[in-house]
Inverse folding.
């Protein structure tokens, strides 16, 4: 048995671990996965992708190790599994092929929903009027999941969630995320719309933004804007914030009740320290692999990002919300925002910068979670994932109550970190985490370990200032 022949088995096991609720069955699945790892003994994968070929990874492992203090054996096994499943080539043709394989492996016909939750497939019309790009044809329909609890309570205060899935803008679907969207519907007692928005390279930016806006307008035909909460993980979190900024740029349309980003991907240029420093811990490392040395061969000088057809789009605030240039009166128009991140993930610092620099006085709540990796909310065997989802529910409930009382101005801007064991601490200056990371980055730069990394980041236009201390 070799790696290629076990790809399908790995993907099926990954899908099973996300769907299972029984701790006994979960243990069986983990045991089966451990057995599969045995067959990989001669081709064993390190927790760091190609660690023996990338000097920076060797250095980081020496500095930090490859695990976090609170990780259990299950955490480590699931992390290794995710790195295997998500090790996707960077070329457009290979990504298209990988998407087809992933869709097959994840079981495109699986309709798993918690008890009392039902699923229906619907079509959402693409609205040609949202298209502002000259020469772009935007028409047709978007397939979507409509998920609701039964019996459904149709009231004027019913919570409606527009959920935008993650996948780096190139992968993922409403199928891959049913484990979390079904749970959201049940936990929140909400109806959830999950569109299959356009993905690159077949449908690059700004198709995803337009599909998100079209889906939001579809809901506005039936519900009040304050009932609707836009939520997404990873790229879906970035898309949620990008859609919010599109609405800010088109003030004739109403804002949703709130926006929720689970480890949102908001900086396509990855200009922040954690993108380097958390490489030993996060499974996203498997997706970038040898990006810093190989990326020039995969794409072109004019197109550094598969999501965007040109580099100018990549620093547009719809694609990278972190680069949003706020005006004096902008923040009053924005709805309450909740941002959650894991402190061991690659995207940690861009989430912090979004709170501290992009939206410095907006109604934003920032929540960090100790030793957690990217989109930990979707992972089983993790007590803090349950805490995080409860916090999302509390956020929605608080915002709706304040809105009903006409006291939304009383929403408190806060930043906290939730610790394993149930306690939490206030982060009085979360940006200090980024600043401390910058100091370590300078040490690595002095050792000439960031040559390829800096080469890519220097393609960032001079007028983009967020993350600039890292680039200098």
């Amino acid at each position: 048995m070799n790696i290629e022949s076990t790809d399908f088995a790995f993907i099926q096991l990954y899908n099973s671990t996300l769907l299972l609720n029984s701790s006994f069955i979960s243990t069986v699945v983990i045991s089966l996965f451990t057995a599969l790892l045995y067959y990989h003994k001669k081709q064993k994968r390190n927790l760091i992708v190609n660690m023996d070929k990338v000097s920076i990874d060797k250095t980081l492992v020496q500095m930090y190790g490859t695990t976090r203090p609170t990780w259990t054996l299950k955490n480590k096994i699931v992390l290794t599994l995710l790195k295997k499943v998500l090790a996707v080539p960077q070329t457009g043709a290979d990504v298209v092929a990988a998407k087809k394989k992933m869709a097959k492996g994840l079981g495109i016909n699986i309709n798993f929903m918690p008890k009392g939750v039902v699923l229906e497939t619907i079509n959402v019309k693409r609205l040609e009027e949202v298209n502002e790009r000259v020469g772009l044809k935007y028409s047709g329909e978007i397939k979507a999941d409509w998920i609701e609890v039964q019996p459904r309570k149709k009231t004027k205060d019913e919570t409606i969630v527009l959920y935008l899935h993650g996948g780096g803008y190139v992968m993922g679907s409403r199928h891959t995320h049913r484990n979390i969207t079904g749970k959201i519907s049940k936990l929140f007692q909400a109806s959830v719309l999950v569109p299959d928005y356009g993905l690159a390279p077949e449908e690059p930016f700004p198709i995803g933004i337009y599909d998100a806006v079209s889906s939001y307008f579809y809901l506005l035909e039936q519900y009040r804007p304050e009932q609707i909460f836009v939520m997404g993980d990873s790229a879906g979190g970035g898309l949620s914030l990008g859609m919010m900024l599109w609405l800010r740029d088109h003030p004739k349309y109403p804002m949703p009740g709130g926006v929720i980003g689970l480890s949102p991907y908001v900086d396509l240029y990855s200009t922040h320290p954690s993108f380097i420093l958390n490489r030993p811990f996060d499974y996203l490392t498997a997706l970038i692999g040898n990006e810093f040395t190989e990326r020039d061969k995969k794409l072109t000088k004019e197109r550094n990002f598969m999501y965007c057809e040109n580099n100018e789009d990549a620093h547009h605030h719809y694609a990278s919300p972190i680069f949003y240039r706020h005006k004096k009166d902008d923040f009053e128009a924005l709805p309450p925002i909740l941002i959650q991140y894991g402190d061991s993930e690659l995207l940690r610092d861009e989430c912090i910068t979004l709170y501290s620099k992009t939206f410095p006085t907006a109604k934003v709540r920032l929540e960090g979670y100790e030793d957690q990796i990217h989109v930990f909310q979707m992972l089983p065997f993790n007590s803090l994932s349950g805490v995080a989802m409860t916090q999302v529910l509390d956020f929605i409930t608080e915002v709706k109550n304040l809105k009903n009382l006409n006291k939304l101005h009383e929403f408190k801007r806060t930043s906290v970190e939730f610790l394993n064991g149930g306690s939490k601490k206030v982060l009085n200056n979360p940006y200090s985490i980024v600043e401390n990371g910058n100091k370590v980055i300078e040490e690595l730069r002095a050792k000439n370990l960031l040559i390829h990394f800096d080469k890519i980041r220097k393609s960032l236009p001079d007028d983009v200032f967020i993350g600039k201390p890292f680039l200098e």
Remarks:
- Residues 1-24, 37-53, 289-298, 463-472 have pLDDT under 50 and may be disordered.
- Residues 3-45+66-105 form one domain.
- The first strand starts at residue 117 and ends at 125.
- The two ends are 48 Å apart (CA to CA).
